[in-house]
Every structure is written in structure tokens, then in C-alpha cells.
Sequence to fold (368 residues):
Amino acid sequence: MALDSHDIAIIYGSDARTMTRSLIEHADLKNMVSNRDAHIVIKPNLVVAKNSGEGATTHVEIVQTIVEYLLAHGFTHLSIAESAWVGDDTRRAFCVNGYEELSKNTDIPLIDVKRDTYQIMNKHGIRMEISKTIMDCDFLINIPVLKGHCQTHMTCALKNMKGCLSDRSKRQFHSMGLHTPIATLNSIRCANVVIVDSLNGDLDFEEGGNPVATNRMMIGRDSVLIDAHGARLLGFDIKDISYIALAEQFGVGSADITKANIVYLNKDEINNYSRPIGRARQLLQHVDERSACSACTGNLVHALARLDEQHLLSKLQAKISIGQEFKHIASDGIGIGHCTRLFAHSAYGCPPDALTVLKFLTSIIVEQ
Ligand code: SF4
Fold:
């Protein structure tokens, strides 16, 4: 089907290749690009030279599947462009994450934006140096990781565009507090389509280290709408992330999630939490998890992190139940998701997003 700006398609799974293929076929990616000679740039998130298992960087399998699909449909002018954050080497990030091998096997060039030439743009009083490769391309595919961020709370489609800048402009963006410059950048050059890697994005830090398995990917055309939905999945209200509303104000897209057409291509049936790692393990000490789907547990982990940031987590008096083994159990306890609908207190959804869980748990703590 052709993807409209208000459409978001979501898929769950453990195989990034199959998931990517299903998403781009569902969205009919080949027909989004007007002609086979178009220069298509793929922009992953390779902020640091760390493997995607750490929760910071885009899985190479996603990019590889997109490249193979585009080549098979006769598109030959493809590039992969990215810039690691200030202080890290993009070429190392390409290498560590398998992009160098992908480039070698397919002859698709890797553009290190730190070494690119720049187009100087001025808007809203902000001067920025944007990669000429990205400014001049015909079609831009943005592949962000949905994850936490130490300064802006979250990063996804809109913020991933910062990797299109020179290091000098990145520094300047930080000195300006990021929100207005990010929204402005997207009003100058925005992605034509966004494919979100939400397989195991980090809990609260863009550099990774605390990956939270959610086994989820999304596709959409509106970067603002994608970020508005992504915020909910991490337990944030849109108003917590100023650049989303600013980008809407600047005409980049719509933050009105109530008008989004969200389609689920399948159901989550994977459980990745038999051995939680990092901070997820600490947070899950508050949880009685029994055969829960990974997105459900991942959303709960994000909600618990938000609760902890608000100093409310220690006020929870009982463990929270989650998982399919609770389906037929009636209890006076606290449960998450449709499987715990017979509980006295249960957060609705299958899976409920982190913002819904956060509001539900907050109301219980207030009532206690
Ligand atoms: S409510 Fe139950 S079935 Fe639905 S996502 Fe959560 S654990 Fe899975």
C-alpha cells in the first residue's frame, strides 16, 4: 500500500531482515521514489563506534535489507551517509557495525559527513553547515534508533538528522539547547521516509550501555508523527520533548497522534527477558514477569525508569505482574496489559505504551 503522511506501520520480531522487508514491502518503498536514477541516501544512527547490541546504533541488517531491495528494483545511485558525534570517528563506527563490509560487498559508498562538503543555511537566526550529499539527494531514508537521550530525553527521527551536520554546527546546536536548532534543521531538510530501529534502544543515554529489548520496528513518512508516537513508547508526553512541537510549528509534520493511522503488521510473541541486562535488570526487580512479550516488558522498563526519575519508584508497595501466564488469574494486585485484565488494577493495552503504564502506576501510587 502507498504510505500516507498519517500512516505508521509497526512490526514485532527477532529478525531485523525479515521485519525490514515486511515494512518496506508494506509501504511500497520502490514506488515512493520517482525514478530509478534518483540519488537515494540512507542515513543510519552511528553516533558512536559501538555495536548495535549496546542500544545506540542502527542494526546493519536493516540497511543491508533496504540496499538489497532497492538494487533489486533497479535503483543504482545509493549512498550511506552518517557522522559520529563530536569526538568519535565515523569510519570506526562504520567498521565496528559492519557497514564497511556492506559497502565492500555492494559497492555502495559510505559518506563520512565529517569529511563531506557543506551547504551553509541560515534560518530562524541559526547558521548551520549541512552535508551537501544529503542536501542534494533526491530521496532521504532516515533510520534512527528510538532511545533515551541525556539532554532531550529521547532521540528518534528528528534528532537523528543532527548527523547531517558538520562538527562545528553540532557543537553550536548543543550550545543552543538542541530543541530549536533540531526543529529548524528538519524544516530545511527532512527525511522522505523514516524506518525506526526500535529493537533494543537504550533506556536513557544516546551512547548505549543499557539496551531495552522491545523487538519492534516502525515505518512512517512524517518525522514529527513518528517522534510523537516514539515519545509515548518511551514514557514521555509530547510536551516533555520541546523539539516535537517546534517541528510541528515549523511545518515539518503533525504531532497529533490521535489522527495517526497506526497499523500493526503482527503481534509480539517474543520474550527476551529471561536474562535482563544493565539497568533493566535492576528495574525488573519490581516486576513479576511470566512469559511476557518483549515490547510489553520493554515498555514497562521505560515506564519504571521514568517513575524512578520522578522519585516515585520506591513508593511502589507491591510487585507488578506482567505476562501471558496471568491471563486467567484474578488478583487484587497490580498488572500490566490485557493478560492481567482480571486483576483489581490493570493497565489496559496489548501491549500498553510506556506513557499509559507510567500514568497508571502514578495514579496507583497517589491512591496508596
Ligand atoms: S498484554 Fe500479554 S499478550 Fe499483550 S503484549 Fe503484554 S504480555 Fe503480550
